Amino acid sequence: MSIETEAAPLGQLAEAPEEEIAEALRNMIRGPEYPCVGAKSVVNRNTVEVAVFEAMAEPASTALLLDRLSTFVTAPSDETGFRSFIAAFRGPVPTSEEEFEGLLWRQLDLLRVSDPSEWDPAVSNDPANPHFCFSVAGTAAFVIGMHPLASRLARRSPLPVLVFNPHAQFERLRATGGYDRVRDVVRRRDAKLQGTINPMVADHGQGSEARQYSGRVVDAGWRPAREVS
Q1: Beta bridge pairs of residue 143
Q2: pLDDT surpassing 60 at residue 9
Q3: What are the phi and psi torsion angles at 163 (to 5°)?
Q4: Gyration radius (Cα) of the chain, Å
């Protein structure tokens, strides 16, 4: 079973114009099997920003990504709905889940090294802390990594991708009583797609969300090879 997309073959898509890559990702999310209803919402409401960069975890891409992310997280937003920032990278295409995980954490570390802002005080900067959340431009953001070799079908994408979701929008959803309902719908859809629920999922405060970022199944003693600060 796989999530169908109308994307060009991987080698062709990596060379495609930015809007073609962006539309391929939107079509992937629009697909009937794609489990995340939050992602579907931001695509349908046009509250998702998609940007394409050259090489993941490289200084040139990092500078551009930090600039775009800083504008995104600090922009006024509609507090009644979700919004997301999707960063797609033309390469390198990882050869394993472990390689992608290394690239993801190197990219997050490079962002933090380049970011003059303090860590969002609403969350922890310790990846072992249950209240950990990545921070960019002083704003907490939950990160979802996706790539062609992900073992979880919901995390497969035609190119390496990082999705940044402002942490505050999940807190607003909890405050209005809608979080559990949305979470349960996503988990049911994911289990239907894969046959099992994602063993890494946990609510914020019950386990460090850092363990969920790459999509790889990790053990209880896991810590990222490169930690951000």
Answers
A1: 164
A2: no
A3: -110, 130
A4: 16
